[in-house]
Amino acid sequence: MADSVVRTALVTGGASGIGREVCLALAAAGRHVAVADINTVGAAETVGLIADAGGTALAIEMDITNSDSVIQCCGQVEDELGPIDILVNVAGWDKFMKFVDTDEDFWDLIIEINYKGTLRTTHACVPGMIERGWGRVINIASDAGRVGSSLEAVYSGAKGGTIAFSKTLAREVARKGITVNVVCPGPTETALLAEIINANADSDRVIAGMTNAVPMKRLGQASEVAPAVVYFASEGAGFTTGQTLSVSGGLTMAG
Predict the structure, then answer these.
(1) End-to-end CA gap in the chain
(2) Beta strands 220-221 and 57-61: pairing type?
(3) Is the pLDDT of residue 255 over 60?
(4) What is the pTM of this model?
(5) Where are the chain's structural domains?
(6) Fold observed for domain 8-186+221-247
(7) pLDDT score, position 191
């Protein structure tokens, strides 16, 4: 059921996968949605799906590794859809590599996308939320950031940093009407996961290992992650902050 107040949500990485499903679910909950991505074709497709269902959305080209791009795009969203009250950081990227085989350029790329991208969008959006006295920040991390994941050392570190950052920000803005929470997907069927696995010579073994590690013995679906985001973004989640929720078929059962 849609919340009674119409609010604008900015979703990074909304062109495909988990990001697209989050956009569709937020629109179904009555939110206006800014679909931000460097993939403008995919973002436009997401907007088309929302429009077909009767929702309101805007496709916007955003490079989360560039502060100027983030600031400019946030301004455009506010001009066209209204104040950004909900921020969902989904955009991410990875490649399976042993840490000893990585180099500093790889570290920088992983951190720019998976950690600093979240810092940039949050830094751009939270001041307005503080001024208005209401806001929801939902960061998509990963179970890799909670328990580690072989061949994903730098990615795991970036996602662990995202979790710690989110908890600290939640404390800082708790009295401002703003909540900050984290959703951690486990292995989820997306185009990005397929790309990562296909680049690995032992892709069949990798996918089998992922599946076997999940108590439900299957990969997750992007559509199964989105409802967790919708809850954290809702009016009714106003007393829930600083939390980390795994949507991983039981892969992580942290207290």
Answers:
(1) 30
(2) unpaired
(3) no
(4) 0.93
(5) 8-186+221-247
(6) Rossmann fold (3.40.50)
(7) 74
